[in-house]
Amino acid sequence: MRLALFGPPGAGKGTQAKLLVERQGLTHISTGDIIRHAIRAETPLGQEVKKFVDAGQLVPDEVVWKLAKQAIANEGHDDFILDGYPRTVPQAEWMEAYLDEQDASLHAFVSLVVPDEQLVDRLSKRRVHVETGETYHLDFKPPPADIDDAMIKQRSDDKPEKVRERLAVYKEETQPVETFYRERGLLVEIDGVGDFEQVYERIVEAVQDQA
Ligand code: AP5
Ligand code: MG
What we know:
It contains 9 helices and 8 strands. The protein is α/β, with parallel strands linked by helices. The protein has one domain: P-loop containing nucleotide triphosphate hydrolases (Rossmann fold, 3-Layer(aba) Sandwich). A hairpin with a 5-residue loop joins strand 5 (about 125-130) and strand 6. It starts with a strand and ends with a helix. The structure holds BIS(adenosine)-5'-pentaphosphate and magnesium ion.
């Protein structure tokens, strides 16, 4: 099955993608993870995009499309879950044209709906393991006691002023992508409030007839 998980920063895209990968055998394609990896490794790409991520801005469409296309091509177009892509209308148009050519259109575009106050709480209390990338939340999924504290960090774009900027960018540049997929009949809206398992069950139930 080919899915895209959509939603504002902190909606739970990464959290739900991980569950779908573990339980449904899909491959996870996260442009945010690819970008952060390039920044950590200080590759030329990482150096080029760092300033956008640090400012809470989107990386230019051409750059991200190249990364996403490469990742999708590597997966062989059959079973994947996109997390954080597409995030602008041009990104969606380019990807759809490419997937149509490959006879591999998305089965569903899943939008996680979560109110702003809750997004801010989730992001301010998110912590990430620097090596494994495992994501925690100080209240809902605290890091296990046996993990060295020094390995658990806050993402640089989770500082309050960056979160505000990311939410503003989401509303301005990203939300219109929902209309694009509504018009294609692929939009599935999911209530993203509730515990991790409840949200997961809602997604699985909603997409099972789409494949
Ligand atoms: P990216 O890494 O994709 O960040 P994002 O979209 O802002 O989303 P997040 O990863 O912050 O949130 P999430 O929805 O994955 O939430 P999570 O599951 O972690 O992108 C980062 C940057 O890269 C962008 O700003 C941009 O610069 C660049 N970029 C990436 N893709 C791009 C593109 N296509 N075009 C241009 N630029 C691009 O959950 C959040 C927290 O909440 C966690 O602590 C989690 O434990 C907790 N949580 C999750 N679910 C629940 C629940 N149900 N109840 C309570 N807590 C929960
Ligand atoms: Mg994420």
